[in-house]
Each structure stands twice: as C-alpha cells, then as structure tokens.
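To: structure subgroup
Subject: Chain for Friday's discussion

All,

I'm putting the inputs and outputs inline so they're searchable in the archive.
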Amino acid sequence: MSHSSPSDNSPSAHSPSNDGHSGLSRTDRLANLIIAALVIAVAIAAIVATGDFPATSLATDVGPARFPIIYAVALIALCTILIINTLRKPVTEAEPQDTTGGAGRFASRVNVAVGIGLTAVCLIGMTYVGYAAATVVYLSSVMWLMGQRNKLLNPLIAVVVTAVIYITFSTGLQVPLPVGSLFE
C-alpha cells in the first residue's frame, strides 16, 4: 500500500487545496474583507440617503429612490458573496513570489490609476459629446486596458453594451441621458 507524500508527483500533492482553488494570502484576505465592508457601508448609506426622496403620484413611476435602493441591495448581496467566498478559501502562509521584480505590481497600479482617469474623462466628456459617444470610447478603452486587445470586438461590445444601457434607462426607466452640449 502506497501513501502519497508532499514530495511525490501526484496531482493531489501539488494542488493548494482540496477543491482545486488556491488559497489567499493574509493580506489579500484582509483586503477583500475590508473592501467588501466599505462597499456594504456605502450601500447602506445610499439606502438611508434615498429614504427621504419624494414619492411620485404616478402609479407607473418607480420614483427617484427605487433605482439606488435596488442597486444598493445588489451591492450588499454581491459583497456578502465575496465575504463568504473569501472566508471559505484557505489562508496561505507565504506571499506569492513576484518574479517581475515589482514591475507587475507597478503596472497593475498604473492601470488602476489610468482606469480612474478614464472614468473621470468619460464623465466630463458626456457633457460635451453625450452619453453614447463618451461611453463607447470609454468602454473600448477600459477593455483594452484590461487586456482585451481585439480591435474589432472591443468597439462592437462597447456599442452593444452602450445601446442596452441607453434603451434600459431611456425607454424602460424614462431617465434622460446626456445628449452633449455639442449636439444640442
């Protein structure tokens, strides 16, 4: 009868956990829990803040508070799932080795900063060129930034997503989206 040891070459000896998923470092686990807690706090604050929004007299109108409350509840549910999944993963004792000499970590931080900048530019750009043009360029740029580098697929996906959001808000929720001062 043979017993496997950690030094043999069986697949189970090299898997980080029984379910095939790798564990989280203590830093990553703490970061996930803190981010989830902060987003839950912001969502709860949004629910409290929208509690004072006025109701409408129309039976078919969802009212100004409905969408933020639905969004906040969805955020709370997603953060709860993140917390549960984070707590279920095992903690790894050693931090993963960075073989890039810190360049990978720096590049990811630059990408986050560029993404935040693109978001600000998009929001400002909407006032001039409108929702549709600014959002298509923004979504294409963010997809490229995240590693999706298909020159045909990025704009196509951006147009479809922008159209779905536009139809949902403009037609479904009767929320006007910015047209842009250049086109008024």
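Points worth raising on Friday:
The helical segments are 11-14, 26-50, 66-88, 103-129, 131-145, 153-172.
The first strand starts at residue 24 and ends at 25.

D.
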